[in-house]
Amino acid sequence: MAIYMVYEDALALMKRFTPSESLQKHMMAVETAMRAYARKYGEPEEKWAITAILHDFDYEKAPETHPFKGVEMLREMGYPEDVLEAILGHVDVPEHPRRSLMAKVLFAVDELVGLITAAVYVRPDKSIHSLELSSLKKKFKDKAFAARVDREGIVRGAEELGVDLDEHMAFVLEAMKADAQRLGLG
């Protein structure tokens, strides 16, 4: 891989542009889910991790042009087009359809990790380890809980991946449990 495709460089770029710890943790949670899916599908784990860690890096600096301005910056830095296309596809606009598996996975996990994180924060012990799939499904059905989470996007993401929604939710939940300490969800 070229120098611009080094995980540590992508992480440093994300942190430089994203002062919010909660948004940094979100991108790391998306990274965790992307790494797990990359392993499952036999795809390049580091490339998928880099895509995840950069998918929202421009959000705080330019929310009105997210992710388009960020993708322009990444293109100028020499990031590969498949990474840029995946990042563009996570915003669910017709101009940027999700064609690659990487783009479909990024879209499928983005909102779901937000729902899982919110579900952990309201648990009495604040630990992902005590969160069961049945509880997560109840939170998913409760439209008032984490109301900004795009539930239709979560359903569509699982459909685009060709996986059962419950299996998808369980897979991402288990991936996040395995990385709970780094994600601050332990």
UniProtKB/TrEMBL annotation:
Boundaries of every HD domain copy: 25-112
SUPFAM superfamilies: HD-domain/PDEase-like (SSF109604)
Record-linked InterPro entries: HD_domain (IPR006674), HDIG_dom (IPR006675)
One Pfam match: HD
Annotated protein name in UniProt: HDIG domain-containing protein
Native source organism of the sequence: Meiothermus hypogaeus NBRC 106114
